Amino acid sequence: MRLGFACSWDPVPELTWSHTPWNLRAALRNRVDVVDLGVEHPAAVRTAFKAAYARRVDGRWVSMWRHSKVARRYEETLLRKASRTSDCDAVLQIQDLAVLDKPYFLLQDLSYDVLTELIDQPGGLSHFPSLTREAVRWSAERQHRVYASAAGVLAMSGWFADHLVRVSGLPPEKVHVVNPGVSTGAPDPAATRAAHARRMSGPRRRLLLVGKDFHTKAGDQVVAALEVLRRDVDPELTLTVVGPREWPLPGPVPPGVEFLGRRPVGELAALYDAHDLFVLPSRFEGFGIAFVEALSRGLPCVGRDAFAMPEIIQAGRTGDLVRGDDPADLAKVIAEVLADDDIYRHTHADAPRVAEHYTWDRAARQVAEIAAGSIG
């Protein structure tokens, strides 16, 4: 089988969508003949799109140009031309790029129907700050047209698969759950055992947050919760923050916080092993690969009771979930998890199963099987 691979790549392709397309394409090449149908934007085109859709939001410039009608039509034109001139049997699209004449599939972690539900809730579309209601409506209608002609939609979580059927109205047989793999590579069993032994023998005090979209990941809530914890529970508790280029809150970095900024993905494994609890109560999360990376190394997690997080984190077994934005509530959950030896034992025991499932090789095998089934 020759499988077309279509992705709207970032200027550094490896970094696109947190390495997901890059890693999946590499794994697929071990199973099928992959034909690149890349949707690339020359620097001048990208700059023009960014400038045309730049908006001032909360004192900073943002550009949701990828969601614009002009950018969508540009990508559709490129992909349709590439698809027509290629001899691939089916096409895997990363996100909903275009309606094509040959069988095609979409890999997604969320939809515009999800954004439609969120736009009137407190906080709105914090991850998409300049998207208007009209833009979301137009994008949802366009997405439904792409869904209608697709051979299948590959949902990265069970939560999103259910949403596609229940809200978007896709036939259940058209929706397939394909969990992603981790970007940090397979855990080192010796390092995982050593980290577990340390966590079980000494005080657990080191919290870790990884995410470049600090407010979306509720980093402000985590920092405020740390202040509560250091005041009321243990003044030696610390938080390591990885992801944002610059410190994202007003004023200096507060006591107990180590801000590392951006770090290569290759450095994350050691950070997971060196910390005692991963805390990321995201306000908006399509999937949450960072949770899987932490759990695969035996590191318990605290997330939010929303999106796919409840199916990744087993509350009371491998971590816990919060339901609001109150720092005191988050602090209470963090303190309870840190004190629960059983959670650490269960997370360590479950780590090999998590690591075995969340691989790009397994994801590629699923994609290849689904695509082969569509073309007989």
From TrEMBL:
Keyword Thylakoid: no
A biological-process GO annotation: lipopolysaccharide biosynthetic process
Domain Glycosyl transferase family: 204-346
Cited InterPro entries: Glyco_trans_1 (IPR001296)
Species annotation: Actinokineospora alba
A Pfam family the protein falls into: Glycos_transf_1
Protein name (Swiss-Prot/TrEMBL): Glycosyltransferase involved in cell wall bisynthesis
GO MF annotation terms: glycosyltransferase activity
Keywords of this entry: Transferase
